[in-house]
């Protein structure tokens, strides 16, 4: 019975964490205009903020584990091309000076609130959870602003503990705008 309670409490914290704030997108997406997200975007946001997530490639990597740690793309020359290939597939291509560095199709879902949700939220374990370590989770959703730039809301939840005493539960909310070229 104790194990069942433990597993349900872990499931409850994991499912309910990293919820989005209710923010109305400037330009709501629907099935008729979702292709407006197609385009090439800069890797760095218009406003510099963020601790765990600083670039568009960070958002995509934290949700999907797209590339190895040594392959992080933080160069100013990096461009990210997004293209809707199906109603629930977003093609992501990372390039530098016309050379393709990475290409992948991601699962997305367009919801009634006018936002495109990245379905591949990533659950990551650090060490041994609640003994010496924890877990973290990131969720992201996309919209367009009035200038047709990419707006991303990304929530990063983490829980760290030592010897079953939870030391920290925290959700970080990021709101970025990436310039379309």
The ordered H/E elements are HEHEEEEEEEE
Q: Main β-sheet: number of strands, strand sense, barrel status?
A: 9 strands, antiparallel
Low-confidence stretches: none
N-C termini distance: 57 Å
Structural class: mainly beta
Shape: globular
Helix content: 10-25%
Question: Can you offer a commentary on this structure?
Answer:
- This protein has 181 residues and is mainly beta.
- The chain has one domain (2-19, 28-178).
- The protein is 13% helix and 46% strand.
- It is built from 2 helices and 9 strands, in the order αβαββββββββ.
- Strands 1, 2, 3, 4, 5, 6, 7, 8 and 9 form a 9-stranded antiparallel sheet that branches.
- The longest helix is centred in the N-terminal third of the chain and has 15 residues, at 2-16.
- It is globular, with a radius of gyration of 17 Å.
- The mean pLDDT is 78.
């Amino acid at each position: 019975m104790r194990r069942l309670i433990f597993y349900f409490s872990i499931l409850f914290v994991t499912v309910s964490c990293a919820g989005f704030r209710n923010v109305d997108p400037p330009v709501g997406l629907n099935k008729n205009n979702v292709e407006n997200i197609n385009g090439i975007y800069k890797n760095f946001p218009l406003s510099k903020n963020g601790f765990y997530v600083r670039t568009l490639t960070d958002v995509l990597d934290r949700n999907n584990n797209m590339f190895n740690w040594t392959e992080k793309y933080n160069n100013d020359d990096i461009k990210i091309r997004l293209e809707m290939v199906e109603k629930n597939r977003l093609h992501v291509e990372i390039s530098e000076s016309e050379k393709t560095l990475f290409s992948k199709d991601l699962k997305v879902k367009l919801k009634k609130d006018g936002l495109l949700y990245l379905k591949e939220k990533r659950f990551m374990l650090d060490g041994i959870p609640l003994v010496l370590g924890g877990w973290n989770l990131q969720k992201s959703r996309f919209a367009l602003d009035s200038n047709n730039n990419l707006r991303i809301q990304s929530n990063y939840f983490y829980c760290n503990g030592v010897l079953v005493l939870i030391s920290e539960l925290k959700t970080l909310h990021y709101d970025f705008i990436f310039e379309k070229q």
